[in-house]
Amino acid sequence: VAPPQFAADLPRIDLQHNRFGEDAHRSPRGLRHHEKFVAALAKAEQPFLAVYHNIYPHNSWSHYPSGLPYPDSRWGDYLSLKDRKHTKLGDDVVRIMHDYQAHLLQSMHVDKLLGDLLAQIRANGQYDRSIVVVVADHGVSLWPGEEPRNPSGSRLADVQAIPLIVKLPGQTRAGVSLDPVHTVDIYPTILGYLGVTIPESLQGRSLIKAIRDAAPAETVTSTPHRDDPTLKRRLEWFGTG
């Protein structure tokens, strides 16, 4: 039912089960979007709010940490995908290991892009005066015969425990807080730091106290996720390097 000029750019639905063309090579939220966004920060007038959404490492898993691409799976993200309708993985552990490695490499590429962004705002003289928040929408669980986004049983942490990094203006020390938090806490945290009254109807709570009470990063040797089966398997497969 799409107009012909749009339908012509859509992939076959039997090749990309739910992406509708939003792959890493063509998406406006891919590498070209990243470069354009980073360059625009130098022209931002103070004060400013910049919101950056990048699809990596969402899909496709086809980059080395440097950003150099390699051919991706014909199923999109998952080489181990068995059931495309319900996005269920097969039982081939070797293929799942391949998927896990591809996801880690793409995540390392994300780290590089984040580093580029931070280097730019440092060069612009914006870093020390800025609140910087980094967050993901969800994780992924790569286990035989299971659905990668199903947060059930022992796989809950794989999907639910996402990165959340907050850097406050003038902050010079890295800290780790083990307090349970939610993504809806980000907005109240920004408002709380700026001294803006937080409406009673707003979901979430300010994390400013948790951030300031966080333990120095170098002293944190264990977290609640240390015994997760996924972490133990990752160390067994790939080591700690």
Structure summarized in a few sentences:
This protein has helices at residues 4-7, 31-40, 93-123, 156-160, 186-194, 208-212, 229-238, and strands at residues 81-83, 88-89, 132-135, 164-167, 175-176, 215-216. The protein is mainly alpha-helical. It has a two-stranded antiparallel ribbon with strand order 1-2.
Description of the molecule:
31% of the residues lie in helices and 7% in strands. The protein contains seven helices and six strands; from the N terminus they run H-H-E-E-H-E-H-E-E-H-H-E-H. The chain has 241 residues and is mainly alpha-helical. Strand 1 and strand 2 (88-89) form a beta hairpin. The protein starts with a helix and ends with a helix. Mean pLDDT is 85; it is low at 15-29.
What would the principal axes of the Cα set say about the shape? globular
How do the SSEs run, as a string of H and E? HHEEHEHEEHHEH
Number of helices: 7
**Approximate helicity band:** 25-40%
Structural class designation: mainly alpha
Defining traits:
mainly alpha, 31% helix, two-stranded antiparallel sheet, globular, 6 strands
Helix/strand layout:
Layout: H1 4-7, H2 31-40, E1 81-83, E2 88-89, H3 93-123, E3 132-135, H4 156-160, E4 164-167, E5 175-176, H5 186-194, H6 208-212, E6 215-216, H7 229-238
Antiparallel strand pairs: 1-2, 3-4, 5-6
